[in-house]
Amino acid sequence: MGLYDRDYILRRSSYGHWTASQYSYVVILIVINVAIFVADALSQGRLSSLTAARVGTISRPWLWWQFLTYGFTHSPQPSHIFFNMLTLWFFGRDIEYLLGRKEFLRLYLTIVILGGIIWSAINQIQGLPASVALVGASGAVVGIFVLFCLHYPRRTILLFFVLPVPAWVAGVLLLAPDVLSAIQNRDSGVAYSVHLTGAAIAFLYYYQGWNFGQLWDRLGGMAIWTHVKYLFQRRPRLRVRHPETELDDDTEDQADPKLTELEAEVERILDKINQFGTESLTRTERRTLERASRLYRERRHSSGTQK
After folding, report:
1. Residue-wise pLDDT tens digits, 61-115
2. Closest by CA position to 111, among listed 189, 197, 214, 5
3. Burial zone of 244 (CB within 10 Å; 0-12 exposed, 13-18 middle, 19+ buried)
4. CATH fold of 3-210
5. pTM > 0.70: yes or no
6. How far is Cα of residue 303 from the mean position of the Cα atoms in its chain?
7. Domain spans of the chain?
8. How confident is the model at residue 250 (pLDDT cuts 50, 70, 90)?
9. Phi, psi angle pair for 24, to nearest 5°
10. Is the N end or the C end of the chain the one with fewer CB atoms within 10 Å?
């Protein structure tokens, strides 16, 4: 079996199958984290001093991008990134297969961002110095692991690579120190609030049946994105027009606003099919596709008749 035939290197399409056309996002995330870790080591920590989130970040909007970049930055100790990426590798692949590549990435990044925001806000309220830094993907990794435990509670996990326990037991043992630290308000040097944020999002995601892609679609995000893409699409180049055929050309090239709107809607629906499958379409969306299909057939027939 070749490398690109293995299940962990393949991707899941909207129809539940895997193809080798793209790497999984688990692999991509691990590669990015390792690359940044190496770059930070070569820069002697200057990169991490820039990308780490800090207690004061919450009150500095121009630095809010650090609520994302901290999740791809790790401390100089190799064990920090090693265990984070190892856990993501072991358990992230099942969640990515279950949710799909894009939804997995949306969930992962949501945990990273919200974890950083909540950590910064809590510590600023508690009066910690604004320079205290936060780095590491552990919040998102904990969230992915907890979601794994919720979906597969009885799957056997080798705790410390030796002791076989059900996944739910491993999840309890993982979260117990963070819960105790939160109750005792203990400064253990570990960002337990980030871990608990990741776990809380995983619980809500599981029990509330969340899907960030569908939520984005219901809020009209897909339609907005489709229109934005249309605004930046390349337009046809100008061409020389002959007076004797100008009337015909004007008739052919005149843009129909309704047709343009229909094309944008069709593109949005096709993007939705690509993400969630045909089962996710509403009755109105199906009728729109049928209407567009009839219109395109009529235009092709009309074009062939004129020739």
Report:
1. 999 999 999 999 999 999 999 999 999 999 999 999 999 899 999 999 999 999 9
2. 197
3. exposed
4. Rhomboid-like fold (1.20.1540)
5. no
6. 43
7. 3-210, 217-306
8. very low
9. -75, 155
10. C
